[in-house]
Amino acid sequence: MDKNKSRGFTLVELLTVIAIIVFLSAVILASLASAGTKGRDAKRISELQGVAAALEMYYQDNNTYPTASCTSDPSTTCWAQLLPTTYITIMPQDPSFIDNGTSAGNQSLMYSYYSDGQNFILAARLENPVSSTSNHYYTGNYGSTGYANWAIKNGLQ
What we know:
Elements: H1 11-62, E1 68-71, E2 112-115, E3 120-124, E4 137-142, E5 146-153
Antiparallel strand pairs: 1-2, 2-3, 3-5, 4-5
């Protein structure tokens, strides 16, 4: 045996292993980011389905939906007072909404509601929009900068 030959990894072998680790890390981080947006979208849908159920109970008792046009902007009282607490304890906020201290907040991350008393639309902006063939597909503006791409119309679940 040659005593001068050292044991260990060559530079090429070390760089190959490092490249593989970096690649796998990037794939895992991308998957985690996608899971976060899917989780927030699922929460948005679940919350608005809960509001729609409360609206249907209100309709059963009053033969009308609350007449209003508003967003879930906490600087206004419309959303918070839309339904009495006998129907829903707390009106939800979009999971990504950040109140930036202005009266408008971040309207692209708010829920919106519109009703003429006989019909209603509850809308939100999903981070992963639904297909245009979906029953919940919606295109519409609300607030000054908001844009919705998902909605429940008259309790269509």
